[in-house]
Amino acid sequence: MNKTTVIFLLSVILIGCSATRERKLNKSIDNIINSGNFENQFTGCIIINPATQDTLFQYNSEKYFLPASNTKIFTLYTALQLLPEQIPSLKYISKNDTLYVQGTGDPSSLHPILKDSTVVHFLAKSKNIALHLTNFVEEDFGPGWSWEDYDQYYAPARSPLPLYGNITSISKLDTLRVTPSSFRDSIVFSVSGKKRELHQNIFYFDPSRKDTLEVPFIINNKVTKMFLEKALDREIGLIAEMPSGPKDILYGIPSDSLYKRMMHESDNFIAEQLLILSSSSLSDTLNGKIARDHILANQLSSLRQPPRWVDGSGLSRYNLFTPESMVVVLQKMFADLSKDRLFRLFPAGGENGTLSDWFKGNPEPYIYAKSGSMGNTYCLSGYLLTNSGKTLIFSFMNNHHRQPSANLKKEMTTIFEMMRDTY
Length: 423
What we know:
Blueprint: H1 3-33, E1 42-49, E2 54-59, H2 71-82, E3 86-95, E4 98-103, H3 118-123, E5 128-132, E6 167-172, E7 176-179, E8 187-189, E9 203-205, E10 213-216, H4 221-232, E11 237-239, E12 248-254, H5 255-265, H6 268-280, H7 288-297, H8 323-336, H9 339-345, E13 367-374, E14 377-385, E15 391-399, H10 405-422
Parallel strand pairs: 4-5, 5-11, 8-9
Antiparallel strand pairs: 1-2, 1-15, 3-4, 3-12, 6-7, 6-10, 13-14, 14-15
């Protein structure tokens, strides 16, 4: 038997062993999903190898699921496609002695964490400022959002020129501290079941509270004008439309700083504003639907199961996506971005963000993914690194479960570790 024949036979044997091992793995995963903690709910899953385009496992991957914050994967892709390396913070025209400005939806200005002062420093150079805010053609809250979340930190209203993250921060140790300070006289000390009046910027704070209370404030043109005037220590005007002519753009912080916070902390406000920001690159009209429609009609026109996609954050229960569509978008980002940059944007299992307590590596992270959680829903989609050095792409979506999500995460960990150790 010559050398070539021996090599051929060994290859056939190895391929056969690999195929047998993969069949056993698929059967094991199928058994897990069809019993135990997954039995009385709806589950969809797909795992692919982007290098070979092989589908390694799939289960209901073409079915539609409520994605929760997995929606932010589509928002991230949209922003990566439409926004530059630095965030466009303002559009402006300077005529005669007046600076005419309009917002782009940039959420970073005076944000309590991002602390960007680019807009304020820029405006401070001009004596006469005319502010245009009527280019925002969007509801304050997304369709399908829960109305009772109006006073919850995770559901600030959307706006054309956000300031302070559209959040009031209240704390009291030695003295009362309120940001923005304009609301200092609007704090009521009370042990109340609500944090703010539904239709007024009246806030309720328990004086025995030791941590900081974060409450969305009602935002409108009058409030935006008030905040800017206080920050600039001068009056500014509101105008119904911008002057004709080309607009210049003021650029702010690096875009990746917004993307990372959105993905790591599952920041709903930044997600919503990123879609509005993305629309500003296509039109002077600020509306997240413009960006969503553009991406679906162009970069994602080949999706086999087009989503019902109504917001940027996933707060809405109207959203519907399939695991297969999630994997398509993840694969596109994997092809477009360096692995280092891409994995920095996603939480690492066992290390940071929403995955800090789950899917731990041994010792290095092997899961880089975005979770999506809301009542009776837990989804996880992203990248899995195998022991042999391969990168797999997966989407695992769970809807209508009545048990603690921790039970599902334990079962999912078993599946992910089997994939990691087999491929």
